[in-house]
Amino acid sequence: MTKRDLVVKIAKETGIIQSDVAAIVQMTLDNIAQELVEGRDIELRNFGVFEIKIRKSRKGRNPRDTRNEVIIPERAVVKFRAGKELKEAVEKLNPADFR
Predict the structure, then answer these.
(1) 12-58 pLDDT per residue, tens
(2) Which residues of 14-47 are buried (b: 16+ CB within 10 A; e: fewer)?
(3) Exposed (0-12), middle (13-18) or buried (19+): which is 7, by Cβ within 10 Å?
(4) E strand or H helix at 35
(5) Global confidence as pTM
(6) Considering Cα of 98, then 45, then 5, then 9, what sign does the dihedral take?
(7) How far is residue 14 CA from its own chain's centroid?
(8) 56-77: burial string, b at 16+ Cβ within 10 Å, e else
(9) Which of 4, 7, 8, 36 is the most buried (most CB within 10 A)?
């Protein structure tokens, strides 16, 4: 599903015009991104948590030339942890349907 698909679906379900829905969806995503950039976690009840984690510096290798080690610097990354209800719903899925 793309952002556009989401906008169309919400517009159909609510009767709100697509341009208004698109603006609201974009504002929501912009605000989530801004909070994360400022180092704050986002908790959406019954959905999940977006949080900033720091990945430690580590050694890496070029797959084409494994003799050369490269130091991969420490960096901040976004992690997502599914909420209880989402996790339970996903666990009920049949893995064979996704192959």
Answers:
(1) 999 999 999 999 999 999 999 999 999 999 999 989 999 999 999 99
(2) eeeeeeebbeeeeeeeeeeeeebeeeeebeeeee
(3) buried
(4) helix 18-37
(5) 0.78
(6) positive
(7) 25
(8) eeeeeeeeeeeeeeeeeeeeee
(9) 7
Which two three-digit tokens encode residue 4?
Answer: 């556009």
CB 56 within 8 A of CB 74: yes
Q: How far apart are CA 70 and CA 60, in angstroms?
A: 5
- Beta strands per DSSP E along 1-99: 42-44, 48-55, 58-62, 65-72, 75-82
